[in-house]
């Protein structure tokens, strides 16, 4: 019994880790907010590589959260990372008219499933 409790306590920090990141970028006439929800990417790789966009000329803010916030106009479920087998859900906020372009990118580029809200 003590072993079980000890193992559970050791696993608590893993459960508390953020599994999503909100990326907000802004620049000349561009204001984009999206959230990347981890599905199958190793936690450290997700934190260090997937939530660090390099956008030239853009101010980028990244915050880690347990799950993507409500209010998205659409999501790309099970988006496949290029040339890898890892999956993530991409939530889009802001200009809902962008959904037409994002749906095509979701289905063709990321091989995901688009859902509009």
TrEMBL record:
This is NADH:ubiquinone oxidoreductase. Keywords: Signal. It comes from Pseudomonas pohangensis. Residues 1-18 form the signal peptide.
């Amino acid at each position: 019994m003590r072993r079980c409790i000890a193992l559970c306590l050791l696993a608590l920090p893993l459960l508390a880790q953020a599994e999503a990141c909100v990326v907000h970028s802004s620049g000349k006439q561009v204001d984009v907010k999206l959230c990347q929800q981890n599905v199958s990417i190793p936690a450290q790789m997700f934190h260090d590589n997937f939530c660090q966009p390099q956008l030239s000329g853009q101010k980028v803010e990244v915050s880690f959260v347990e799950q993507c916030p409500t209010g998205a106009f659409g999501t790309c479920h099970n988006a496949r990372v290029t040339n890898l087998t890892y999956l993530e859900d991409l939530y889009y906020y802001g200009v809902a008219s962008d959904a037409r372009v994002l749906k095509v990118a979701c289905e063709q580029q990321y091989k995901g499933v688009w859902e509009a809200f």
